[in-house]
Design goal:
By secondary structure, the protein is α+β, with helices and mostly antiparallel strands. The chain has one domain (7-76). Helix content is 21%, strand content 13%. The chain is built from two helices and two strands, in the order H-E-H-E. It has helices spanning 7-15, 28-34; strands spanning 21-25, 42-46. Strands 1-2 form a two-stranded parallel ribbon. Helix 2 links the parallel strand 1 and strand 2. The longest helix has 9 residues, at 7-15. The chain is globular.
Length: 77
């Protein structure tokens, strides 16, 4: 969650080369930059994290500095 500068995403892709990584960010500008490093197993979604409605979609969720933006965080814990 949250694209950032793609440095951490590259590390995640190295750790799970046979898996799909999905980046979610509500900043079109940030995703535009991030998409420059798009790969076959790296996908992007423009979405506000407060609007996420996934259920059993992911094996792992990584966030470096975005969870403080989540309203009602207790609903996700």
């Amino acid at each position: 969650m949250g694209c950032g500068d793609e440095i951490l995403t590259e590390k995640l892709l190295q750790l799970v080369p046979d898996r799909r990584v999905v980046e979610i960010d509500d900043s079109v500008g940030m995703l535009s930059e991030a998409k420059k490093s798009e790969k076959e197993n790296l996908h992007f979604l423009v979405m506000d994290i407060n609007d996420m409605d996934f259920s059993d979609e992911f094996d792992l969720i990584f966030s470096n500095a975005v969870l403080h933006w989540v309203k009602n965080i207790k609903n996700y814990l």
